[in-house]
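User: Reviewer 2 asked us to show a designed sequence for the structure in our supplementary figure. I'm pasting the structure tokens here. Could you produce the per-position amino acids so we can include them in the response letter?
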């Protein structure tokens, strides 16, 4: 019996299906795929939520609701990037306000902390970010603290504002290295402002060790790679009776101890 020429060639269809499936799997495993997913995921959330986020931030004084909105933005971006977060040490979070300090090797540190630190806090933010329309209103309304690194007097004034926030019950999050590490190693000595802040406010410093973020998005790179970030929250370190240098070294040792040895952090 002659085969109907209109009938599909099942062998050809199967080969094409296998090839297309293989190409799709290869593309999904490609870094560019996850870079595109991360960009589309985070930008879509921002486009949808930036206006309500800004309005809520302006309308509310506490900044708690904008912080929660930002938390879900961070989680959504991590999900779109295929990045998993492991957290331990939640029981070390104090009941009252504190200065939280973490090492910094990637923008994904921000997402990990914002998305999975189970506490309300406010960031200290470099002034350049306040030049972005709408974002500056959202950050001001949420109570973020602008730091002018190029102007010592303004930076110290910002720290006084932060101390007042802490005394009123609001915690602050700081990257004491000042910027992202290029090689993944903790940059020491730290910037002193956060330690003066803790001493002035009389609150503990909570050290946070972050591992695994640098390979996901290193400094200077625009390519996102899936991975796993480990975030370890250490025991509070109290500033009473310590000078800045002593306190800084103790926090450095604690952050270094909390950074897990992991093959991803290379």
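Assistant: Here is a per-position design you can include in the supplement:
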């Amino acid at each position: 019996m002659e085969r109907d020429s209109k009938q599909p060639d099942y062998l050809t269809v199967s080969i094409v299906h296998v090839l297309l499936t293989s190409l799709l799997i290869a593309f999904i495993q490609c870094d560019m795929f996850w870079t595109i997913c991360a960009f589309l995921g985070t930008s879509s959330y921002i486009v949808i939520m930036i206006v309500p986020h800004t309005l809520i931030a302006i309308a509310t004084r506490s900044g708690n609701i904008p912080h929660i909105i930002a938390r879900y933005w961070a989680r959504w971006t991590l999900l779109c990037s295929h990045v998993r977060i492991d957290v331990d040490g939640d029981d070390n979070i104090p009941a009252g306000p504190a200065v939280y300090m973490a090492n910094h090797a990637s923008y994904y540190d921000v997402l990990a902390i914002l998305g999975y630190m189970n506490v309300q806090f406010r960031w200290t933010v470099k002034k350049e970010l306040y030049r972005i329309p709408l974002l500056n209103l959202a950050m001001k309304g949420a109570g973020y603290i602008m730091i002018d690194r190029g102007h010592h007097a303004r930076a110290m004034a910002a720290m006084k504002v932060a101390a007042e926030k802490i005394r009123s019950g609001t915690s602050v999050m700081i990257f004491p290295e000042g910027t992202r590490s290029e090689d993944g190693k903790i940059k020491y000595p730290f910037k002193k402002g956060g330690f003066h802040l803790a001493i002035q406010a009389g609150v503990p410093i909570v050290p946070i060790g972050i591992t695994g973020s640098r390979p996901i998005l290193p400094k200077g790179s625009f390519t996102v790679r899936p991975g796993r970030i480990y975030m370890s929250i250490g025991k509070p370190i109290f500033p009473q009776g310590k000078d800045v240098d002593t306190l800084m070294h103790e926090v450095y040792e604690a952050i270094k101890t909390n950074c897990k040895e992991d093959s991803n952090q290379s």
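For the response letter, you might also mention the following. The domain at 10-258 is CATH 3.40.1130 (Glycerol-3-phosphate (1)-acyltransferase). The first helix runs from residue 10 to 29.
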